């Protein structure tokens, strides 16, 4: 919701999973480094939402970028996504629920967020 209000398209976890299977994505976690170290989507890079450089992103301005932060009310991912759009990137989205917005199913082992593994091993409840 915040992303939409800030003029950035969002992506659901299910759509992200499908996109990860079908084409290359750059997934960017804009949480604090300590939070990223505790739990992040495999392959995600950790960038400061307000200070990353254009050179931290792929050279191809048509590359698919997905930003996420901690929860649906967090403004860091939409802020970082808007920054990428200002750099000229055209396929920019925000994971709508953030990493903690995804509840862990009771049957899932720790470290799995609704089908997307989290690295390194995360506690059953990610903060």
What does the model show?
24% of the residues lie in helices and 18% in strands. It is built from four helices and seven strands. The relative contact order is 0.24. With 127 residues, it is α/β, with parallel strands linked by helices. Strand 2 (26-29), helix 3 and strand 3 (45-46) form a beta-alpha-beta unit. Mean pLDDT is 79; it is low at 103-127. The strands form two sheets. The protein has a five-stranded parallel beta sheet. Strands 6-7 form a two-stranded antiparallel ribbon.
Biggest beta sheet attributes: 5 strands, parallel
First-last Cα distance: 20 Å
Major sheet: order of its strands? 1-5-4-2-3
Q: Report the C-alpha radius of gyration, rounded.
A: 14 Å
CATH topology: Oxidized Rhodanese, domain 1
How many strand units? Answer: 7
Low-confidence stretches: 103-127
* Whole-number total of structural domains: 1
What is the CATH C level class, in words?
Answer: Alpha Beta
Structural class based on helices, strands and sheet pairing: alpha/beta
How large is the count of helical segments?
A: 4
The percent range for strand residues is 15-25%
Overall helicity: 10-25%
**What does the overall shape look like?**
globular
What distinguishing features does this structure have?
single chain; alpha/beta; Oxidized Rhodanese, domain 1; 5-stranded parallel sheet; two-stranded antiparallel ribbon; globular; disordered C terminus
